[in-house]
Model the fold of this input.
Amino acid sequence: YNTCGDFMICNLCPRRCNAQRTENEALGFCKCENKMKVARIAPHLWEEPCISGENGCGAVFFSGCTLKCVYCQNYEISHENNGKYITALELSEKLKELEHSGVHTIEFVCATQYVDKLIETLNIYKPSVPLIYNCGGYESVETLRKLDGYIDVYLPDFKYGDDELAKALSKCNNYCETTTKAIKEMLRQQEEL
Done:
């Protein structure tokens, strides 16, 4: 990741597109611009009980995705990048609102393409409830290291045990090795399961 004024050269995910992302142009595999976009920010009651408890988790569903699985249940969000643009300051205010609503945790869903903006947000305001990074598991170790000290719980989906299946359904190469390395980094940061 390199910032050059109003654009970034993006290599946040394992695809390493080296894409030039600007404020108005969405290049690279994820087709995300160099500004944060979210589809939904609200209490979410339907995660695992240990995460959502009685009051739910405060879920932030980011627009776009680095996997684009053909079977995705959030197609409009992940493939079509539906959502609204939001600044780090605006998101920090929304995190405060979620926290004050009584949620037990705050969960960032598919945030890889916006990791730097997420860190900017958490530097403005870091909620006192546990922060969860919910992802497809196909993550760059270097990007995960940026999150060290910010994330309390990693919730990766290990989707495939077969690289050919991963290539066919999520258009990614070397899924198993990449995801295994990513999960090892998550465990390095948060040893307790």
Q: What stands out?
A: The first helix runs from residue 49 to 52. The longest strand covers residues 37-44.
